[in-house]
Amino acid sequence: MRRIKRWSLLAGAAALSLLAACSGMPGAKSGMSFFVTSSNPGQGGNLGGLAGADAHCQKLAAAAGAGNRTWRAYLSTQPVGGQGGVNARDRIGKGPWQNAKGVVVASDLEQLHGANSLSKQTALTESGAVVNGRGDTPNLHDVLTGSQPNGSFIAGNVNSTCGNWTMSSGGAAMVGHHDRIGLDESVPAKSWNSSHLSRGCSLDQLKATGGGGLYYCFAAD
Prior knowledge:
This protein is an alpha+beta fold. The protein has helices at residues 2-23, 49-63, 109-112, 162-165, 203-208; strands at residues 34-36, 71-73, 97-98, 104-106, 142-144, 174-177, 196-197, 211-219.
């Protein structure tokens, strides 16, 4: 009986060691699967297109120890030159998504674009820092999305994506409010992804309406 008990203890310890080793392996997935970028790449609305925006997400995530995930920017693009538009919601996987503190902000796409848990307290940066909102100096609550409330691109002639994220002057971008606070109590004022257009695409123009060229990043895997 003692031998069996001892064998069971040894087997249990070995299993725990194996699990710990696996969690530290390069292929192990990080718990964080959502964040707001802590910085803009440096050219306002010109993010280098979707590829450049994704690369910035990946770089920031890697610096925070979550580079083993496949990161995608929550950004839509508009149809141009015969190419169709891209919906932000189609780029980010199926969820669930949690912030750097382990708080789940949405379990799936339906909840993300419905009754999600995004707020100033949960829409954190990759390092877990709170992003300035309305009432703070500077106000950074305008988050680039180029999207409609359901996460799809905006059709029509209006430039709502800074030229599909290649313009650092002129144009405009649809933004959301990560803190869910605006000038009034209307639905757009409280929208996390589709509140209003920016005044332009340069960093100064983005700052003029309360932003810093930040955007959302989601782990798509």
